């Protein structure tokens, strides 16, 4: 939500940023961008961007955009509770004529089946497309991407009615640098589905190349050479690269939103499940490589430095990072772990243990260095 709020403030909108975490509200109020700390544009935006914990500001807002988390439950089922709770809070304060947009990644049907009834349950609006407007528009932020940002990344939207699409279009046309970058889907469900397809496409292709990497190693081939050679084909091929597993808030989780919804249609999404399985195997594969590398000494008692806690280069985010699983598996095998990641700063394991980054690597020696993310 913060990059979007900043983008809208940049374009001259008066923006309230509702956030339940008081620390984040305080940081934004102090002009500190906790997502991209190197960005210095927040202080000047604070004239138009007001962080708050108070939902009553919905009363005086013409557009309300929802960017709350959409995680999975322990059983890999969608946890839509954040979307539901926030939609109800909006419904309690909404004024007629307001446009509500959901940006959180979710399964097809959420806007219509969850957001709409929750907003209407407040009793202040009831006819979508007439006395209020509702749309879905997926977030496409790519943290750390130096080329694509809020203003130049194509934005897809789908309204609950044509009037809803038109209203949402007006907002994003004002935000993006070129109105041609706004694409209108036929309905909210089509926009919800296309976002999941984007992330499933990545998950499946990463799984494919991870599998190839393991096979190439057994066959004595260099997978990077194979990818490079295949990339010489000017059409019909797009390179993906192997890695220690997938991480972040999106690719490991989002595909399961569709797998869950598909079951309602008696349909099994086999590609999604297989890709999830293959990608989840990679941390174990990395630990096997570590064990092979230290065959002369054994992992137990070995000093191991993990380089890179973040799930991809040049960002500080270590949510769902494969480094977590790798550290846990190495720890179970008795390795003594150190971490180096000046951007992420730390790696939180699921048992509550936290590895803090060492400040520099030069004056220490290790039995093994595991390079996971190169910033
Ligand atoms: N981060 C990305 O790069 C990215 C990219 C594409 C899509 N998305 C999607 O965007 C959504 C949000 O992801 P994120 O990474 O920004 O999550 P996040 O956890 O970083 O941010 C969500 C914020 O919502 C706040 N929040 C939760 N419940 C609230 C409530 N009831 N009232 C007010 N604030 C509340 C949280 O405190 C948190 O600060 C998810 O659906 C995600 O899949 C994220």
Written account of the structure:
The chain is of the alpha/beta class and 375 residues long. The chain has 3 domains: 2-187, Rossmann fold; 195-280, Orthogonal Bundle (N-(1-d-carboxylethyl)-l-norvaline Dehydrogenase, domain 2), CATH 1.10.1040; 294-371, Rossmann fold (3-Layer(aba) Sandwich), CATH 3.40.50. It has 11 helices and 12 strands. A 5-stranded mixed beta sheet has the order 3-4-5-6-7, sandwiched between helices. Strands 9-8-12 form a 3-stranded parallel beta sheet, covered by helices on one side. Strands 1-2 form a two-stranded parallel ribbon. A hairpin with a 5-residue loop joins strand 10 (346-348) and strand 11. Helix 7 crosses helix 9. The longest helix has 32 residues, at 188-219. It is globular and about 70 Å long. The mean pLDDT is 95.
**Global structural class:** alpha/beta
Q: Which CATH architecture of the largest domain is right?
A: 3-Layer(aba) Sandwich
**Overall pLDDT:** 95
Helix-strand sequence: HEHHEEHEHEEHEHHHHEHEEEE
Instruction: Give the name of the CATH superfamily of the largest domain.
Output: NAD(P)-binding Rossmann-like Domain
């Amino acid at each position: 939500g913060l990059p979007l709020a900043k983008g809208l403030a940049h374009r001259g909108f008066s923006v309230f940023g509702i956030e339940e975490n008081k620390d984040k509200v305080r940081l934004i109020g102090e002009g500190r961008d906790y997502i991209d700390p190197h960005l210095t544009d927040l202080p000047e935006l604070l004239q138009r961007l007001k962080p708050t914990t108070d939902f009553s500001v919905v009363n005086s807002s013409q557009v309300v955009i929802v960017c709350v988390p959409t995680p999975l439950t322990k059983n890999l089922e969608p946890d839509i509770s954040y979307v539901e709770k926030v939609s109800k809070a909006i419904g309690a304060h909404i004024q007629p004529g307001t446009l509500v947009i959901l940006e959180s990644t979710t399964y097809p049907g959420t806007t219509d089946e969850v957001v709409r009834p929750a907003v209407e349950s407040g009793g202040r609006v009831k006819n979508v497309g007439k006395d209020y407007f509702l749309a879905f528009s997926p977030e496409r932020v790519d943290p750390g991407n130096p080329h694509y940002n809020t203003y130049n990344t194509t934005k897809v939207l789908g309204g609950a009615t044509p009037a809803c699409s038109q209203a949402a279009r007006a907002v994003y046309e004002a935000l993006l640098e070129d109105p041609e970058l706004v694409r209108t889907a036929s309905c909210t469900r089509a926009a919800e589905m296309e976002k999941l397809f984007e992330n499933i496409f990545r998950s499946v292709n990463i799984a494919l190349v991870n599998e190839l990497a393991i096979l190439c190693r057994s066959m004595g081939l260099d997978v990077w050479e194979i990818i490079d050679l295949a990339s010489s084909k000017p059409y019909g091929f797009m390179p993906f690269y192997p890695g220690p597993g997938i991480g972040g808030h999106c690719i490991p989780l989002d595909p399961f939103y569709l797998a869950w919804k598909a079951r309602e249609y008696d349909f099994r999404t086999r590609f999604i499940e297989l890709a999830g399985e293959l990608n989840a195997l990679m941390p174990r594969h990395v630990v096997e490589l570590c064990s092979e590398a230290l065959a002369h000494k054994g992992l137990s008692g070995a000093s191991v430095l993990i380089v890179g806690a973040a799930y991809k280069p040049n960002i500080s985010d270590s949510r769902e990072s494969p480094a977590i699983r790798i550290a846990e598996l190495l720890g179970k095998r008795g390795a003594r772990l150190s971490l180096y990641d000046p951007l992420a700063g730390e790696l939180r394991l699921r048992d509550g243990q936290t590895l803090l980054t060492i400040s520099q690597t030069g004056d220490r020696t290790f039995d093994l260095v595991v390079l996971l993310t190169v910033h």
